[in-house]
Amino acid sequence: MTNFAAADAVISRRLESTLEELRQLVAHPSYSGEGQGMQACADFVARMLEARGFQTQQVPSAGHPVVFGLRPGPAGSPTLLLYNHYDVQPAGPAELWASPPFDLTVRDGCAFGRGAVDDKGHILCRLAAIDALLEADGELPCTVKFIIEGDEEGENVHLPDFVARHAGLLAADACLWEAGGVNHLGAPECHAGMRGIVYVELRLTTASQDAHSGLGGSIFPNAAWRLVWALNSLKGPDEHIRLPGFYDRVRPPTARDLELLAALPDSSQDLLHTYGLRGFIKGLRAGVEVQSEAVFSPTCTLCGLTSGYQGPGCMTVLPAQASAKIDFRLVPDQDPSEVLQQLRVHLDSHGFDDVEIIDLGKEAPGRSDPDHPFLRLVADSAEEVYGVRQLIAPMTGGSGPYHAFIHHLGVPIATVGIGYPGMQMHAPNEHFRLGDFVAGTRHTARVLARFGAGA
Amino acid sequence: MTNFAAADAVISRRLESTLEELRQLVAHPSYSGEGQGMQACADFVARMLEARGFQTQQVPSAGHPVVFGLRPGPAGSPTLLLYNHYDVQPAGPAELWASPPFDLTVRDGCAFGRGAVDDKGHILCRLAAIDALLEADGELPCTVKFIIEGDEEGENVHLPDFVARHAGLLAADACLWEAGGVNHLGAPECHAGMRGIVYVELRLTTASQDAHSGLGGSIFPNAAWRLVWALNSLKGPDEHIRLPGFYDRVRPPTARDLELLAALPDSSQDLLHTYGLRGFIKGLRAGVEVQSEAVFSPTCTLCGLTSGYQGPGCMTVLPAQASAKIDFRLVPDQDPSEVLQQLRVHLDSHGFDDVEIIDLGKEAPGRSDPDHPFLRLVADSAEEVYGVRQLIAPMTGGSGPYHAFIHHLGVPIATVGIGYPGMQMHAPNEHFRLGDFVAGTRHTARVLARFGAGA
After folding, report:
1. Nearest to B209 by CA among B219, B223, B226
2. Is there a domain that residue A350 lies in?
3. Which of B218, B306, B329 sits opposite A306 (nearest CB)?
4. Which residue of A has its CA nearest to B236?
5. Binding-face residues of B in 90-149 toward A, CB within 8 A
6. Could you say which of A353, B180, B202, B241 would form a disulfide bridge with B417 (CB–CB 3.0 to 4.6 Å)?
7. Contacts of B409 (CB under 8 A, 6+ apart)
């Protein structure tokens, strides 16, 4: 059995060199949207794996190459799949960064840089855990596979197809998700599911050119008005989503789900304060009723509206075009393709067959059993490192290719990592706290060791 | 009685020097919005009037100075008020102009330049008519007043207040509007009324910052959705405007109005073609039913929508702010201030007291009696010049400070001018046809002469 005291000591002793390696990885400005430096970054990631004895390959995908790594463990040992990504968000406005975004900078006990937590820091956290086990034990206790993709942040969501096509290569007994960490109270928190998503743009063209409102106001169709009416037909102030059959496959939370939610800290008042809200919708007030609605109900969110004149003052124009961005978040067992069909049927049957639907991306909802032995193992390991029991959120509100791993590989998924709520993910001054990095790495090492030991 | 043959000959002989004077006026790039060159342009306009024996003053207003000119006619003669403006629209994209916008350029029988027709060419048309009468008769047959404002194109609509405050100075027996001309068949056409307008922006703020749609989609208020619902409450697909009492003061067209509309060419198929429409709204098809609805019904036109993410692809944002631009066109006897109140009452009573209304400008609707002796005089004069009877549109769909002149000065208003439908008003390559300029000037001279003669 692993000597965790020795492994922990290695993690602390090697922290400087781990951060130096992360600094080199962050220096690759790998925005997948622009394709900038993607191949160089994939090569660097592969070399990092090879330095730990992994056999690697760069597997072609519909987007950037997927770095796959395999390090066989002892004969008969189980296989743990680690999911990460090497692409990052663009840095955004340079003047909002206190240090250069692609030059990892440690100050005030934190490491700042684009990708510091999302997701390059998590790649290094896992490699540092592997380094510690190799130095402490001379061996890894299980087979480890890495799948590190290059299109997580962009719009080219092809991972579900990739996982389906390479199910043999990726076959495993359990999976660690790309990220994890502690909540705003410092307690480790894991989530066991993600909502799905259907992101569409609705577009309307009612004329070949805009008209003067004095000329056409009484007699011409108006794209902005038709868009308003089409949208209003989708959802009214009662917040009920009116697509035919939309709610048919929705599974309500179980008693166990509600029990797990009740054990989480109640963030509702923080949310009201942070976002300056007068209150929640649907008469929601606080506690489990808010947390349950937030993750177990599907949504139809208007993300954007565009039509006609949008500058200062007046322009008396009658718009020929209008569009809206809409994101539907789906819960188990809703199906993204079915929802897209329901949207088309709904619009047609309400007289809006002139509204074009542009499919901008879909992912299915997915969840693991929060009481699966692997999730218990992760929670037990967390308690050793953090001194408090890991909390399990049965679902989160966000979306990701969770479903693909569960559906095609049949693995349970847990989250372990270095994040905390103030980490500025996707924003300027993205960072992690060094203490969280060390704790997340110790946690990862324990998960690997216990998983290999079959405990 | 004026020798019209002599006056017409003067107009033709002096055309070159008239265009040269217009060239100097157009060279002043007087966009009222930016205040560029406004005072120099006002000074130049005043000097042009003084050169014809007008006493001038530049009367301060809430915007740029209003140039007022007075040239007394024979004792006891009636007074004709000429309304014009010296401000212009910005030139817009320079590369879309075939010749420099502020250098009046004659080619292919047309004169091109910003303000060529709107409205500097009309100022010169009137001055050329006065020149012709002075040379032919040595005298003007009536008292002539000019009111030439500098804020017609901008958002600072203060002319109604100005007219009310200076009703004594402006007192007259009849008024010629700033523009006029021929329709697409080359026949002179006059309009006897303009709709009013209430232009507002509706603004909503539901949170202090945007949220991630995965976080707030099920529980946060969404400014874009609330805007959609507020707008939908104003007008549904039936096109009925739901403000309380909105239609109470609407006067339907009279039998005479419909008779006048029936005499106009039917432009409905041209409109469908020009704007690439599949059809009109409200089941309208062609002819008088379209023309009557187009000008005698009030509107609620969505001119613009803005909220959240509007770029390419996806952004999973839940918007904290949303806004819409709306223009209500009003018909006699609707009252702009009353409509603004109705809008507030409507929004409040439908649960949208969080929607802010920003008043961006108002004008009342107004119309002259199309059978007023002055309008008949203008039509008779037109027939002499154009060889065909002038058509009278009892209303137009556009808006202007028409009501102020009718209400505060009690004058009938007619339109005479140099325009035609292809003149590119407000667009690059604005121009008039030289033949229209000559005809409009001859027409103006006849109107002055007959009006002075009391016929």
Report:
1. B223
2. yes
3. B306
4. A229
5. none
6. B180
7. B81, B163, B167, B170, B171, B172, B175
Distance from CA of B377 to the nearest CA of A (A): 28
Q: Closest CB to B235: pick one of A225, A304, A324.
A: A225
On whether both A332 and A225 belong to a single domain, the answer is: yes
- Residue A153: the pLDDT is 85
Output the average pLDDT for chain A.
Answer: 95
Shortest alpha-carbon distance between residue A9 and chain B (Å)? 38
Give contacts of A301 with chain B, Cβ < 8 Å: 213, 217, 222, 316, 318
CA B34 to chain centre: 20
Q: Which residues of B touch A299 (CB under 8 A)?
A: 213, 217-218
Rounded to an integer, the average pLDDT of A366-379 is 96
A196 touches chain B (CB under 8 A): no
pLDDT at A455: 59
pLDDT < 50 stretches in chain B: none
What is Dmax (Cα atoms) for chain A?
83
Nearest beta carbon to residue A318 from set B278, B301, B360: B301
Q: Say if residue A146's pLDDT is above 90.
A: yes
Tell me the C-alpha distance between A155 and B314, whole Å: 7
Domain assignment present for residue B268? The answer is no
Question: In this prediction, what percent of chain A has a pLDDT beyond 70?
Answer: 99
Inform me whether the pLDDT recorded for A380 exceeds 80.
yes
Q: Phi then psi for A201, rounded to 5 degrees?
A: -110, 130
**Orientation of helix A15-26 relative to helix A434-453, angle to 10°:** 100
Which residue in B has a C-alpha nearest to residue A319's C-alpha?
A: B303
**pLDDT (mean) for A343-365:** 96
Cis amide bond preceding A333, omega within 30: yes
Question: Where a domain ends, among A308, A341, A363?
Answer: A363
Share of chain A above pLDDT 90, in %: 90
**Is the pLDDT at A328 greater than 90, yes or no?**
yes
Residue A36 has a pLDDT of: 75
Residue with tokens 């216990």: A450
Query: Is A105 within a domain?
Result: yes
Same domain, A71 and A154: yes
B203 and B187, same domain (yes or no):
no
pLDDT of residue B1: 73
CB B414 within 8 A of CB B172: no
Measure B140 CA to nearest chain A CA, in Å: 37
**Domain span at residue A318?**
196-250+297-363
Q: What is the pLDDT of residues A256-311, one digit of tens each?
A: 999 999 999 999 999 999 999 999 999 999 999 999 999 999 999 999 999 999 99
Q: Return the CATH number at B430.
A: 3.40.630.10
- DSSP SS3 for B244: coil
Count CB atoms within 10 A of the CB of residue A312.
Answer: 9
Structural domain includes residue A432: yes
B227 in reach of chain A (CB within 8 A): yes
Q: Is B221 touching A (CB cutoff 8 A)?
A: yes
Q: Do B317 and A304 make contact, defined as CB atoms within 8 angstroms?
A: yes
Residue of B nearest to A206 (CA): B277
Please indicate if any CB of chain B lies within 8 Å of the CB of A350.
Answer: no
Task: Give me the mean pLDDT over the A56-68 stretch.
Answer: 96
Rounded Cα distance, B271 and B327, in Å: 21
Q: Which residues of B touch A155 (CB under 8 A)?
A: 313-314
Q: How confident is the model at residue A79 (pLDDT cuts 50, 70, 90)?
A: very high
B182 and B221 assigned to the same domain: no
Kindly determine whether residue A209 and residue B276, on different chains, have CB atoms separated by under 8 Å: yes
What is residue B99's predicted lDDT score, i.e. its pLDDT?
A: 97
pLDDT digits (tens, 9 = 90+) for A192-223: 999 999 999 999 999 999 999 999 999 999 99
Q: pLDDT at position A268, please? A: 95
Cα separation, A66 vs A82, whole angstroms: 13
Distance CA A420, CA A431 (A): 9
Domain count, chain B: 2
Residues A333 and A372 in one domain: no
Q: Please check whether residues A207 and A331 belong to one and the same domain.
A: yes
pLDDT at A65: 96
Tell if the CB–CB gap between A325 and B304 is shorter than 8 Å: no
B349: contact with A, CB 8 A cutoff: no
